[in-house]
Write a structure and sequence with these properties.
The protein is mainly β. 8% of the residues lie in helices and 59% in strands. Strands 1, 2, 3, 4, 5, 6, 7, 8, 9, 10, 11 and 12 form a 12-stranded antiparallel sheet that branches. A hairpin with a 2-residue loop joins strand 10 and strand 11. The model has no long low-confidence stretch (mean pLDDT 89).
């Protein structure tokens, strides 16, 4: 095995391929999930229990592929409980996300390669450590685009470093947070510093 490995153990998987939509494959995975990530000598485990968890893969039609090749992954979840490394659990009422991967012929740092549109609702944070603004986050909305090709590498950190060094950035086109008395609305551009931490300007 290499320096990076992961193992996902889902419950029973039910696949659906509608005859009227041959470009779409839908997976239904309610129940208990266990994701283990091993990077070098560090092992992390995320346990997720979901009342509903659906994933749909949508391929472009031949006409769409000619103009803008892309593959969209749509994720929908309800009634989720999440715990990392057997720590205190968080609860999430609902989650919807669409991740679109583009495949431009010759991308540079100004080319959009991924697009994310995600909304979380009804998030209850773990009670340890006590959150400063309470445990209830009403809503989080993120609409963002990855600019520049993310090259493959042996470790995710190496891949991110190559993307950063080539001028890759994230365009945060819409950010919203409703957390207790705090309301945040913003947009901006983010990059990664030498330690792979996000830096940038948001307004």
């Amino acid at each position: 095995p290499g320096p990076f490995a992961w193992d996902w153990r889902p419950p029973t998987l039910i696949l659906e391929a509608p005859l009227w939509a041959p470009d779409r494959l839908i997976g239904h995975l309610p129940g208990n999930h266990r994701l283990t990530v091993i990077e070098q000598d560090r092992r992390s485990v995320l346990a997720v229990d979901a009342a509903a968890f659906d994933v749909a893969f949508v391929q472009p039609t031949p006409a769409e592929e000619k103009d803008a090749p892309a593959v969209a992954t749509k994720i929908h979840g309800e009634g989720l409980t999440l715990a990392a490394d057997q720590g205190p659990a968080a609860k999430l009422g609902g989650f919807d996300a669409v991740l679109t991967a583009y495949n431009p012929a010759d991308p540079d740092h100004t080319t959009e390669t991924y697009d994310l549109d995600a909304t979380l609702t009804g998030l209850t944070l773990p009670n340890e450590p006590p959150p400063a603004l309470g445990r209830d986050v009403a809503r989080v909305l993120v609409r963002a685009a990855v600019m520049g090709r993310v090259p493959p590498a042996a470790l995710p950190a190496q891949s991110l470093a190559l993307w950063r060094d080539d001028g890759g950035t994230i365009e945060a086109r819409r950010l919203e947070l409703d957390y207790g008395p705090l309301e945040v609305r913003g947009e901006g551009t983010l990059a990664l510093d030498r330690a792979l931490q996000p830096v940038g300007a948001l307004t």
